[in-house]
Structures are given as structure tokens and as C-alpha cells.
Amino acid sequence: VTAFRRAHNLIDHPVILFGGRIMGSKGIDQLFAVLPFVIARVPKAILVIIGDINEQFISSVDVWARKHDLKENIVLLPWQRGADYWTALAVADVVVMPSLCFETMGMMAAEAAALVKPVIAGCYGGTIEVVAEGVTGYVLNPYNTALFARRLTVILSDHALAHRLGKAGQRRIQKLFTLEAQVATTERLYNGEHLE
Q1: What is the pLDDT of residues 88-113, one digit of tens each?
Q2: Of the candidates 52, 143, 157, 37, which has an alpha carbon nearest to the alpha carbon of residue 98?
Q3: For residue 126, with 0-12 CB atoms within 10 Å meaning exposed, 13-18 middle and 19 or more buried, which class applies?
Q4: Collapsed DSSP state (helix, strand, coil) of residue 125
Q5: Per-residue pLDDT tens over the stretch 6-20
Q6: Which of 40, 98, 134, 181 is 20 to 30 Å from the Cα of 46, by its Cα?
């Protein structure tokens, strides 16, 4: 983790992690819309984006970052695999998934929670089953930039809250999303039990 932080100039910086396909339906534009407000309140915060980074995206982010004087607050990395992926998650202070599309589950949210990371997720699709609003992170409409900025700022500013949300997320993953928990739930369904 320290080597990753050092390699990407993240030492002593709160890290916001976004990972996935770089496209509008993943809420990348909404994330950029809230970033100036967040950085105004947490100036050392850095947004780390891991994904299918291409030259066009790099160029557009560079123009945007210069316009908003946030060049030092954004790190763009290609998609991380294996141990590097888990290291990127471990480095994060908060993971954001502001998807506007109907995610089937939001695997990154579950993986982040397993590593005791709070998650801010969009209110569309299956991610809302992984992230419990106000308990393991926050579920919100990514178009509500004021709320998105407030939630992100509070997590970055309140380490005790971030840890509490992360621990609750880890407990939720262990209770509901392990192989054993999924097998038990499936058996209950086959036995005709009603699940809440």
C-alpha cells in the first residue's frame, strides 16, 4: 500500500477511488461536477481513477483539471489487475460508484466494503443491495451534486465515521455475500421460505 501511495504521489492525501469503464452512464461526469466543491473543503484529497483510460480521456481531463486548477488532485491509471487492484482498493479512503445505469450488483462496492472502505453509490440498480444507506456508506442520486459533495466531504473529513461505515460494510458483506451466506439463502428459497 505504501509503495502504491508513493508511486502515485498519494502519501498524506485522502484518496477518492473510482474504478470501471470510463463512460457517462457510470457517473463520471457527476463525479467531476462535485470534485471542485469537495477539494475546496478537503484540499489534499485526490481522485484516483482506474479504468479504460485512453488518450482522449486523458486530454479532456487535463483540460478540465487546468480550468478548475485541480491538476494535482487527479490521478489517472489503467485498470489494475490482481494484487494491484486490491492495493488500489486498500489505498482508498472512500470508493465512489455514482452509476446512472442499472448496475447488476456493483462488485467493486462489495470488494471495497470487504476491505473496510465506505462506499458512495448511485441509487440505480443492484448496488443499493450492497450499500446500506447511512450504515455502510451512502446511496444517492448522482445528479444531486450538492448531496453528493456533502457526503463525499463528510467521509473524507471524519475518519471515525469513515471507519465506522467501512466496518459496518465489512460485516454486511460477511453476513450476506459470502459463498456460505449465498448457499444458505438459496437453500432457504428452495425450501419455500420467504426472504425479507
Answers
A1: 999 999 999 999 988 887 899 999 99
A2: 143
A3: middle
A4: strand
A5: 999 999 999 999 998
A6: 134
Q: Note the pTM of the prediction, 2 decimals.
A: 0.91
The H or E element spanning position 185 is helix 179-190
> What letter does residue 25 receive in the DSSP assignment?
G
- On the question of pLDDT at 138 being above 90, the answer is yes
- State the residue for C-alpha cell 486548477: 69
Compute CA distances 76 → 72, 95, 105, 114, whole Å.
11, 15, 25, 24
Burial 6-31 (b: 16+ CB within 10 A, else e): eebebeebbbbbbbbebeeebbbebb
CA angle 47, 53, 58 (to 5 degrees): 70
- Cα–Cα distances in angstroms (integers) from residue 55 to residues 3, 60, 78, 107, 172, in the given order: 26, 9, 11, 27, 39
* 155: amino acid identity, one letter: I
Helix, coil or strand: residue 69: coil
Residues 6+ apart with CB under 8 A from 47: 16, 18, 31, 35, 73, 74, 75
Q: Give the three-class secondary structure for 94.
A: strand
